[in-house]
Amino acid sequence: MSSPVPPISESGLPEGWEIRQSRSRNLPYYHNPATGESLWEPPANTDTEKLKTYMSKYHSKASVPPAPPSTNGEKIRASHLLIKHKDSRRPSSWKEKEITRTKEEALSTLLGHEARIRSGAMSLGEIATKESDCSSARKGGDLGYFERGVMQKEFEDAAFALKPGEVSHVVETSSGYHLIERTA
């Protein structure tokens, strides 16, 4: 990173944890060198408000990896906006230690975001950076390139059905509710 990163103590992470960058996903993750444990979601006892501020300031929109050498139509690139609810398979995120909203509240929130995207008021990436419950929020929701068999089936089917530049309507998976934008 080009800008200096403040001490990890300002991140809100518990003692012994640090933030690293995944080479394969080009996303930050949480690592504890003493235990060898790595997590995509913040560890227990994280001050999520401090972490949210720290991550949005120092780990947002990391550099975008180049396209793979040959896509042959088998790989696509997409971004998404995920809103989780209390019945999601992992009801926590980088923003909230415990998500308590109902499915109905999550759907209503996502429909509001969809309306703003379709009206042109904001892009999916702009909203994802602040509102998505996925760690990809730090990259404007960018998931990079992926092929079939990598994502959840409902997500994958919707993403592969889109043309580059198109945004899906609401897609439900066990993770929560998504809006997906195919970017390549």
Automatic annotation (TrEMBL):
It is an enzyme of class 5 (isomerase). Residues 73-184 form the PpiC domain. SMART domains: WW. The keyword Isomerase applies. One of its GO terms (molecular function) is peptidyl-prolyl cis-trans isomerase activity. Residues 11-45 form the WW domain. GO terms for cellular component: cytosol; nucleus. The keyword Isomerase applies. Its EC number is 5.2.1.8. It catalyses: [protein]-peptidylproline (omega=180) = [protein]-peptidylproline (omega=0). SUPFAM superfamilies: FKBP-like, WW domain. It holds the Pfam family Rotamase. Keywords: Isomerase, Rotamase. GO terms for biological process: positive regulation of transcription initiation by RNA polymerase II. InterPro entries: PPIase_dom_sf, PPIase_Pin1, PPIase_PpiC, WW_dom, WW_dom_sf. This is Peptidyl-prolyl cis-trans isomerase.
